[in-house]
Amino acid sequence: MDLPSIRLENVSVRYDDRAVLRDVSISLDEQRIGVIGANGAGKSTLSRLLNGLVLPTDGAVHVGGLNTRQHSKQIRREVGFVFQNPANQIIMPIVSDDIAFGLKNLSLPKSERQQRVAETLDELNISHLADRESHTLSGGEQQMVALASVLAMRPRTIVFDEPTTMLDLRNRLALQHEIAKLSQRAIVVTHDLEILEDFERVLVITDGTIAFDGDPAEAIAHYRQWSHA
Ligand SMILES: Nc1ncnc2c1ncn2[C@@H]1O[C@H](COP(=O)(O)OP(=O)(O)OP(=O)(O)O)[C@@H](O)[C@H]1O
């Protein structure tokens, strides 16, 4: 799969004059990229810049050459976002309808929508949830359904914001396996350092800047050292 480059150019984000990201410039080209760092460091803000959920106060973000400021609709299709709290993402009362919901905007025929829903549920081993009422799902089940609704759209990049917080060991391993076999790019913000083992690149965010950018073992060592300091 041809993966569009994501570029941040001198990006700063401020909320009420408080700098949350400061002059960040990076190009994200790898297929598996982790983002780690302390609470409040700016990780979610960074991840939300990648599909235009947050716009830079200064600087620019480009996805495959398109600026998130001007091309939000195309970029949302290109970069899917799995929220930390799946309740923010689940809209429809029945699981299979929820997964089909986003597909309606892609103008796919009904038969193809149904097929994609079934395939995605099967891929995540959650076919048994298809007819469940969304509000009766456990937290972990909701997290898997939220992931399914993004996967079904087949974006070429998927951003995960702390995807394992509600998962038991089995679902955590299932998610890890799912991320490993994605043909898409995965960018994962997490405090769960183990899931980053096979990633190509990990960014350590400290106080709104990229304090380390490299392979997972070195990045985790850097983060541990910083946390003990
Ligand atoms: N919409 C907003 N308005 C005001 N402040 C915000 C907003 N979003 C985030 N912040 C602040 O920006 C800082 C960075 O937040 P962010 O969510 O990016 O951190 P994080 O590294 O993902 O943290 P955590 O690990 O706790 O989830 C925090 O101090 C947060 O309170």
From TrEMBL:
Q: Which CDD domains match?
A: ABC_cobalt_CbiO_domain1 (cd03225)
Q: Domain ABC transporter spans what residues?
A: 6-229
Family matches, as SUPFAM superfamilies:
P-loop containing nucleoside triphosphate hydrolases
Report any Pfam family annotated for this entry.
Answer: ABC_tran
Name the coiled-coil region(s): none
Its name, as the record gives it, is: ABC transporter ATP-binding protein
Question: What InterPro entries does the annotation carry?
Answer: AAA+_ATPase, ABC_transporter-like_ATP-bd, ABC_transporter-like_CS, ABC_transpr_CbiO/EcfA_su, ECF_ABC_transporter_ATP-bd, P-loop_NTPase
- The source organism is Glutamicibacter halophytocola
RNA-binding in keyword set: no
UniProt record similarity statement: Belongs to the ABC transporter superfamily.
GO molecular function terms noted in the UniProt entry: ATP binding
**Keyword set, alphabetical order:** ATP-binding, Nucleotide-binding, Transport
